[in-house]
Amino acid sequence: MDGAAERCMVRSLMVDKPEEPIEYLIELLSRGRTEVPRIMVLGPPASGKRTIAVQLCEHTKAVHITASNVLKEDTRLTREARHLRDIQKEIPCELWIKLIQQCLSKVDCIRQGWVLEGIPHTRQEALLLQEVGIFPEHVVMLEAPDEILIKRSLAKRMDPASEVDMKLEQQQGFLSEDDIASQLIKYHQEAHALQRTYKNCLKVVKSDQSQDEVFAQVLSHVQCKPRSMAPHTPRVLLFGPPGSGKSLQAALIAQKYNLVNICCGELLRAVSADETSMGELIKPYLASGEPVPDSMVLQIMTERLSRLDCTARGWVLHGFPRDIKQAKMLYEANFIPSRVFFLEVTDEVASEVVTLRAVDPITGERYHSLYKPAPSPEIEARLQHNPRDSEDRLRSQLKQYSASVPALKAMYPGALSINVDQDPHAVFETLESWLVQRVTTAGLPGVVMDVKEGGSL
Predict the structure, then answer these.
(1) Which residues pair with 263 in a beta bridge?
(2) Is the pTM of this model over 0.70?
(3) 275 and 328 Cβ atoms separated by less than 8 Å
(4) In 3D, which of 177, 136, 164 has the Cα closest to residue 47?
(5) Burial environment of residue 414 by CB neighbours within 10 A (0 to 12, 13 to 18, 19 or more)
(6) Parallel, antiparallel, or unpaired: how do β-strands 202-206 and 38-42 relate?
(7) 238 — phi, psi (to 5°)?
(8) Smaller CB count within 10 Å for the chain: N or C?
């Protein structure tokens, strides 16, 4: 099996999250293909979504998913949604996303792939779908002049086999021209936002042409190898011993690329300060200097990485994982970095950086005996050294980090190691030169990063 096939299998495994992963992989291999279609067909009313979706499903053998399909299952969630619909109340977006997730997690959708017709309707739905791990490989957006769409909608009143939403007809009767125009206005309000959300895998097709020509363009698009979604959600992982400058480099990366900067230590302290049950649980560990149990750290970390800002913008993470056990836990939680860097520095330099730093308790300003000395004897006299920066504690941390590095590098074979005993901005330039290259499966265990020129973050 070549590297591309392996990456496809890993991606499918991460997206579909099957209950029996081994059986799932065996099924993929037995079919002789490692990719299944994941397609969204979007467009305004009367643009031909139903026709194109049906043709795609016939061609690819994927499962056709419509809004009515999503509500067909007899589950607690679908009963709740149908009740809201029957009393003419709007189904909450979060519930709707759970219903779609429930539908796509069925065996036939996992094995055969899916074509979502008219889903998502809004950018909010699209972002929530991303948050729960539902990413299309291809998105087709049909468009046509409103005048043509209105004429089609009015003409289809006489055609019971058309793609008109029969549920709406039954509930509201035939729509007037004003009603159709109102629906089109609503659609246009969301269309541009949806295009931005899926711009990396989107094809806009004019549907005011022959049906054969429309389908030919759609089929050509879905048969193209999809580009990675990772450039929209960069996930950067920084490793390094104390004194390697992880916090500084993470801040520079986050600032330039608008990523969410997540420092494990700061996150734990923030949770501890909150009056939550988890905050109360970890507070004694932080107060005593004892390590917080891995299970608690992982719960806090996964909750933070699952938030919408991380899902939509991407993240740069440092301070976690610290060892191979934590790295595997993060991987099993399906948080896979797209770029991994090891910041390397000698023990002597790390000791120089850490043990000679101090803080002014009045201003909060940080100083360093060599690199940023206090500007006056008065300030120097009141500087305070953090007990955590002691020589003995640092030696223990360096020893633990060194012991963990070989296994971590084996888990992330595509990672880049950088000597940081140089100007911090030179280090950032090196990091950036790799960040802007084409994003691949750098963080996936067992997958070597494929570095190409001319990509973008």
Answers:
(1) 318
(2) no
(3) no
(4) 164
(5) buried
(6) unpaired
(7) -110, 125
(8) N
> What's the full length of the chain, in residues?
457
Provide the residue type at 227 as one letter: R
Q: Which residue reads 């970095």 in tokens?
A: 337
| Residue at token pair 């039954």 | 170
